[in-house]
């Protein structure tokens, strides 16, 4: 039987969240297996917050997203560190289904503002994860971090065809909130922004629904707004060797403080939905290089059949064209580079001309964007037939530090310590 545990009902859990909640879910502060394979037994239950790596990366992807990028407004290093400590304490509570502060939404002095906004009262944890990242702009001369900027946090190049909007790109700090309940994700970001008042300001944010990637083999492959299964060959949390090689940063990479962390790239990709919807099925399938129904590579029958780029049809032509998305994005076309994708669909209303402002909010984690995202995206930007139907309007690159080890640790301690 599914147990719905209220946020106030979990108040008694310690800050480390080391308690059994629901059917067999242990929230531990010593989750150091490789890879971390924490699964919530239901969409109501919590994931562990403490661990070697941040949650929300290889965690089985949840259904909803609220992503935010902040600009740091304080000029005092000590105030920024204090904020990160406060955020970490709140995140540890929120991810376990508790309220943001010890007094909650209604437990404090009536004449004072509550230390939780209250819109998630009575809701379970809903698999909430909170993942923080630091943008290149944080490593300027404000906080003495210039010499700690990782080489892998190099500015992304300008890709052909992109139409980036500066106001919805970049940022000093990002937080990715993923959950199975949109109100839980929004509540978490709202409270972090409230706690950060006077020290940070929201630069831009994005809501997402309908995950467009699977990060565990226990999950079915979802579909993007073009109707195709997305992320069939994504890195999975079960791929221990690939994760060590392709996902997690190492001290050997040149930045000791990033060991156990990962680099996040975000891209808001608007789709020409109306044009796509008038395109023939055969052309749609040729553009992706996959069957729309099953998700099988063209020339094959099942989604996970190996892609065969040499296979030809009765007409002697390759089933998968040279400009097909699956060919250009495949590791064999990019020096064996892999990405762990955690993207989401978005619909942000209409553009005033009767067209949906909709598409994919792309999120990908990797060990080194210079060797992974950059060559893959450059290949796609130059040659992908899909470019006729999409445009990139937002971009972000963030260094996501290692996980929070215990209640005495905090987000970014390895950077600021």
UniProtKB/TrEMBL annotation:
Dyp-type peroxidase C-terminal domain segment(s): 221-404
InterPro entries: Dimeric_a/b-barrel (IPR011008), Dyp_perox_C (IPR048328), Dyp_perox_N (IPR048327), Dyp_peroxidase (IPR006314), EfeB/EfeN (IPR006313), TAT_signal (IPR006311)
Dyp-type peroxidase N-terminal domain residues: 54-209
GO molecular function terms listed in the Swiss-Prot or TrEMBL record: peroxidase activity
Enzyme class, UniProt record, top EC level: oxidoreductase
Keyword Heme included in the entry's annotation: yes
Transmembrane segments: none
Domain of life the protein comes from: Bacteria
Major location category of this protein: other
Cofactor: heme b
Record keywords: Heme, Iron, Lyase, Metal-binding, Oxidoreductase, Peroxidase, Signal
Record note on cofactor: Binds 1 heme b (iron(II)-protoporphyrin IX) group non-covalently per subunit.
PANTHER family: DEFERROCHELATASE, DEFERROCHELATASE/PEROXIDASE
Family affiliation: Belongs to the DyP-type peroxidase family.
Protein's UniProt name: Deferrochelatase
Species this chain originates from: Nonomuraea angiospora
């Amino acid at each position: 039987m599914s147990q719905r545990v209220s946020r106030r009902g979990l108040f008694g859990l310690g800050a480390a969240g080391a308690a059994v909640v629901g059917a067999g879910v242990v929230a531990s502060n010593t989750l150091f297996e490789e890879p971390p394979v924490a699964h919530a037994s239901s969409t109501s239950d919590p994931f562990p917050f403490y661990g070697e790596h941040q949650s929300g990366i290889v965690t089985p992807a949840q259904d909803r997203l609220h992503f935010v990028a902040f600009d740091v407004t304080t000029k005092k290093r000590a105030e920024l560190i204090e904020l990160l400590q406060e955020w970490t304490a709140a995140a540890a509570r929120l991810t376990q289904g508790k309220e943001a502060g010890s007094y909650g939404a209604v437990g404090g002095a009536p004449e004072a503002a509550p230390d939780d906004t209250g819109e998630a009262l009575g809701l379970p944890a809903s698999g909430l994860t909170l993942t923080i990242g630091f943008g290149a702009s944080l490593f300027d001369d404000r906080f003495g971090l210039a010499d700690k900027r990782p080489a892998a946090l190099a500015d992304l190049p300008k890709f052909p065809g992109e139409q980036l909007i500066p106001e919805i790109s970049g940022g000093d700090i990002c937080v990715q909130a993923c959950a199975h309940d949109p109100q839980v994700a929004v509540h978490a970001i709202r409270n972090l922004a409230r706690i950060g008042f006077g020290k940070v300001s929201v630069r831009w944010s994005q809501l997402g629904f309908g995950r467009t990637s699977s990060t565990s083999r226990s999950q079915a492959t979802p579909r993007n707004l073009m109707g195709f299964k997305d992320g069939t060959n994504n890195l999975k949390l079960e791929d221990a060797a690939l994760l060590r090689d392709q996902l997690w940063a190492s001290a050997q990479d040149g930045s000791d403080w990033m060991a156990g962390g990962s680099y996040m790239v975000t891209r808001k990709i608007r789709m020409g939905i109306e044009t796509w919807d008038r395109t023939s099925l055969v052309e749609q399938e040729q553009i992706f290089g996959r069957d729309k129904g099953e998700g099988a590579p063209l020339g094959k029958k099942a989604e996970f059949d190996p892609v065969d780029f040499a296979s030809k049809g009765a007409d002697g032509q390759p089933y998968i064209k040279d400009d097909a998305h699956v060919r250009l994005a495949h590791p064999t076309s990019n020096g064996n580079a892999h990405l762990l994708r955690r993207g989401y669909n978005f619909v942000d209303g209409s553009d005033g001309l009767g067209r949906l402002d909709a598409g994919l909010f792309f999120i990908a984690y990797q060990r080194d964007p210079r060797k992974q995202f950059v060559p893959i995206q450059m290949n796609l930007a130059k040659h992908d037939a899909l470019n006729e139907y999409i445009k990139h309007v937002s971009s972000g690159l963030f260094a996501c530090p290692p996980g929070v080890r215990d209640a005495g640790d905090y987000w970014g301690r390895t950077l600021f310590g």
